[in-house]
Fold:
Amino acid sequence: MEKFKFLIMGAGPSGLAFAHTLLRHGERSFVVMEKEVQAGGLCRSKTVDGSPLDIGGGHFLDTRIPHVVDFLFQFLPKDQWTIFERKSAIDFGDYSVDYPIESNIWQLPVEKQVEYIEAVAYSGENMGVNTPEKFQDWILWKLGRKIADDYMFPYNRKIWSIDLEELGTYWIDKLPSVSFREVLFSCLSRKPFGKVPAHQTFYYPENYGYGEVWDRMGRELGDKLLLSMPVRTLDAPNRTVNRQISADIIINTVPLSSFELAGVPGDIQNSIASLKHAGIQIDYYNTNLESDKQWIYIPNEQVSYHRILNRKTFVNGSHGYWTETNLRRAVETSARVAVNDFSYPINTREKPMLMKKIAAFFSGLNIYGLGRWGTWEHINSDIAVKQGIELAEMLLNKTTK
Structure:
């Protein structure tokens, strides 16, 4: 039995940030366990058809948190990244509109603009109706029937592949927010108005896939990173993993439902089992698209995939594109290059209550959830790094007092 002060389960962005923050503060009694042969989690990259492809469906470094960006530049210097302006669109088949649609209705023919504007005008928000608690009801309340039926309902059915009635609204701050007044301004001035989406500007490595920075972070950990070592069992009261490694403090960044738990009450086990997630399949095609968009969203439910990543627009010297499909809709094809069973936590209405209960139990045992899967939140890699830095500093401060 090996014993450490800290044991980090998972070498994705949050676990790597936590580990390197420990090192920067002089703490060396820790180890990181990772089931894959390479660090990076969902942000790993592989070479496909001569160029990098991100196995997690496409991840990028947002520019909005300077200290996170600077932290990562220590591993992959700034001059090895390219900064991009986000270009994304919704493809309806016979026409395409820049994302978000409510900011870009002006790009449509006039008769279609009138249909969309009229629907937004009669939306619940614009009519003074109280905000609903269900996501499906919120879509109608916020955007009106036309955008709901043409885009938001079918697209969200595809990406989540569950009944939209199950989703809550506590996570909608991740979505664009455009008022009816801003819709009118955008149509009259023929330019977007309203809250911009995430990744409005982003960094991507100039000569690598996004996984390069995480791979370098992993390699710099040396023998403190244990690759090809999945978490199989966790004895929670004794903070022991796989009956081999124990620690004073455990940091969990992997899904609690992916390994066996011991010493955990039935009600907590049931809460973990009630958490929902979506997996994805990534397929690669070597055909170049006639588009300058990096993201292309596909609401048509007759098409299996829900979005396209047009890699030649951001991966230097590449060609082709890859698609992302919910595993419940996917079929095995010769184009398949990656499958991720755990890709997106699903924001069901009951999730906040479940996670509050789960986190309270485990933190009482000095086991802390971190990152997308440790907190079951759909966060991007920059937020995961920020959380990793902050939790490490908080726990180091707490344990040294």
